[in-house]
Amino acid sequence: MKAIRLDATFAALADPTRRAILARLAAGEAPVTELARPFAMSQPAISKHLKVLERAGLISRGRDAQRRPRRLEAKRLGEATRWLERYRRLWEGNYQRLDALLEELKAKERK
Amino acid sequence: MSNLKVTTPSDREIAMSRTFDAPRQLVWDAHTKPELVKRWLLGPPGWSMPVCRIDLRVGGSYRYEWRSDKDGSTMAMGGVYREIVAPQRIVSTEKFDDPWYQGEAVGTLVLTEQGGKTTLTTTVLYASQATRDAVLKSGMTSGVEQSYDRLADLLTSLRR
C-alpha cells in the first residue's frame, strides 16, 4: 500500500509546474486563482495539476467552503524525500571512502 | 568534501553530482581500476566487493559482485561499455543479476576538472518511469547510480 502511494507521489513530483505549486504552498495555503497566476496556463489546466497533487496526497483542501484554498501536506512530501535522503546517504558513504582513497593516491603521486 | 546532489532530470532519470578534491585523472582511475573500485564502491555498511572485473573498451564488459559480511548474502551487476573518453566520460549499460526492476538501464559518468578539483556527474536512464521510481524507493541502489535535481531544488525552497 505504502509503495503504491509513493509511486503516485514521485510521479506527481516529476512535473515542474507541480513542484512550483508545492513551493508556493510551502509559504501558506492559497486559492486556485492565486496558484494559477504565475503560469501561462488556463485554470482548468492548473486544476488538473492540483488533482494529481491531491491524489498523491501532497495537498488538501482548506475549510473555507467559498475559496477552497489548497494547502501543502508536508507529511507526504516528507515520506518521499526520506527515500531520496536514504539514497543520498548510501552514496555519500561511498564517496567519503572515495575521498579517503583519492587523498592516498595524491600522497603517492607526490612521492 | 560533501554536497552530494541527487536529482531527477527527467521522468526516467536519476542524476547525482559531487565534487572531489583531486585531479580528474585520479577520479578516473578510482572508477576504472578494479583494485581501486573495490575500495570504495561498497554500498551499505557491512558489504564488501569480492569481485570487480573491468574490460575498459567499447564493447567490453564489467562485473561487480558484493557480499554482506554479516549474513553472506550477495548482489551482483554488470554491463557493457558503449562509450569511453578517458579521462572524462563513460557510457555503459547496467543490469542486476537478480532483476528487481525491468529492462536495462544506461549509465553516464562525466568528470570535469577545475582548479585541481573534479566534479563527477552520474546519470542513469531507466527503461521506464515506473522503473526509475522503483529504484528511488528501493534501498538496494548500491550499483545503480544517479540523482534527483529538481527535488533538491524543491526542498531548498521548502526550507526557506
Account of the protein in words:
The complex is a heterodimer of chains A (111) and B (160). Chain A is mostly helical and 111 residues long. Chain A has a single domain, classed as Winged helix-like DNA-binding domain superfamily/Winged helix DNA-binding domain (Arc Repressor Mutant, subunit A), CATH 1.10.10. Helices cover 69% and strands 5% of the residues of chain A. In chain A, strand 1 (59-61) and strand 2 (70-72) form a beta hairpin. In chain A, helix 1 (2-13) packs antiparallel against helix 4. With 160 residues, chain B is an alpha+beta fold. Chain B has a single domain, classed as Alpha-D-Glucose-1,6-Bisphosphate, Chain A, domain 4 (2-Layer Sandwich). Chain B has an eight-stranded antiparallel β-sheet with strand order 1-2-8-7-6-5-4-3. In chain B, strand 5 (74-85) and strand 6 form a beta hairpin. In chain B, 32% of the residues are buried. The chains are: A mainly alpha (111), B alpha+beta (160).
For this entry, give a set of tags.
heterodimer, A: 111 residues, mainly alpha, Arc Repressor Mutant, subunit A, two-stranded antiparallel ribbon, 2 strands, B: 160 residues, alpha+beta, Alpha-D-Glucose-1,6-Bisphosphate, Chain A, domain 4, eight-stranded antiparallel beta sheet, 8 strands, 41% strand
Summarize the structure.
The complex is a heterodimer of chains A (111) and B (160). Chain A has 111 residues and is mainly α. Chain A has five helices and two strands, in the order ααααββα.
How would the blueprint of this fold be written?
The complex is a heterodimer of chains A (111) and B (160).
Chain A: H1 2-13, H2 16-25, H3 32-36, H4 43-55, E1 59-61, E2 70-72, H5 74-110
Antiparallel strand pairs in A: 1-2
Helix pairs in contact in A: 1-4
Chain B: E1 5-7, E2 13-20, H1 24-32, H2 34-37, E3 47-54, E4 61-68, E5 74-85, E6 89-96, E7 105-114, E8 117-125, H3 129-137, H4 149-159
Antiparallel strand pairs in B: 1-2, 2-8, 3-4, 4-5, 5-6, 6-7, 7-8
